[in-house]
Amino acid sequence: MTVFxxxxxxxxxxxxxxxxxxxxxxxxxxxxWVNRWLNAIPFAALGALIFPGxxxxxxGEPSVGxxxxxxxxxxxxxxxxxxLVVIGAILTVFLLPI
Length: 98
Prior knowledge:
membrane, AzlD domain-containing protein, Brnchd-chn_aa_trnsp_AzlD, 82% helix, extended, 98 residues, transmembrane helix
């Protein structure tokens, strides 16, 4: 029972600091350029997470990852579902004979 209470207490302590900014920011009015900047953050973070992975798909051969990335971009520009884009990029990396 003690372990259960500790888990509940720890989950509340990690949830509260994450929820407070969400409720506070929702009520604030920002200028237009601040909203544009805040809207760009998820895309920048996603790019920062994906790009190093593309270059390190195969040790010593970044061209394989780059080709997978290019395929992913082309498939996404065609309007395919995200799952299909990911599967296409993975298949490209695995099937590339380099």
